[in-house]
Amino acid sequence: MLRTLALTFALAATAAPAALAQNYPDQPVRLVIGFAAGSGPDIQGRTVAIELGKMLGQQFYVENRLGANGTIAARTVAQSKPDGYSLLFTSSSIAATPHIYRSLGYDTLNDLRPVATVGELDGIFLLVDAKSPIKSVQELIAKAKADRVLYGSPGVGNGLHLATEMFAKTAGIKLQHVPYKGASEVMTGMLSGAVDMMFVTPPSVQGLLKEGRVRALAFTGTKPFPAFPEVPLLKDQLPGYQPQGSWGIFLAPAKTPEPIMQLLSASIRKALLVPEVASVIQRDGYLPDNRDLAQAAAFFKKEVEAAGEAVKAAGIEPN
To answer: Does the model's pTM come out above 0.85?
Structure first.
């Protein structure tokens, strides 16, 4: 009888996730994004979410949970019930957070599991206000050697913070960091004169560049950004600087049932092939990819480990 009961419980435990997956999704799915509405990650995640809703017959709604460099959003999902109804969309900034914060409230590699990567961006822009007297990277370096230069980023450990510190280290200069809650606040600070410079992803700044309100001193990619080919490459102006890019990724609580993970992964990859979705991703300079679950997991682990090395190289101390 005991063996029969044990077998019954085992079968029930196995059947429960399968039944859950078979009916999934039968209610709205929450997509948590740790960036402001209208930001690059928000636009990408929201665009894919709308397509997922069409494909799977349920609403995938966005909840913007700002603060602490995206860690509040990540912790919200990491601590959520692993049933597929709470997902996270974030940028490459998540890779550095376990190396920056001593107490995240979750384990980046063990409490979250990659569902699918959305695309990779070859580089980011180094910006100053259009009214700034600084016209080139060399002039910026010269100013930093002679005077105080303030830069803004969306928080300690953010990918843009890390990119700036790597730039300063390579150039042999000191820059003073002013952390903000988000990239839009950094931009506002720069346009008001509160900070002198910033690194930023193309989606957040293309409109301002076209309007002539900001000046791009350099692009950190391996090749010029298509929409602004006249912006020089940082690697050509600063020997030794390693090109910096970005990426987007969907994650779920680590124990989300495998059938649901498979369905979500396949659906996101299919959504990226829809012309309207692909055009949004590509418009922002990202190249859509097609990584499956195993490939996305390997990519994520590699990026988190690489970010740890970059944090050490930049001399950023955990806090």
So the answer is: no
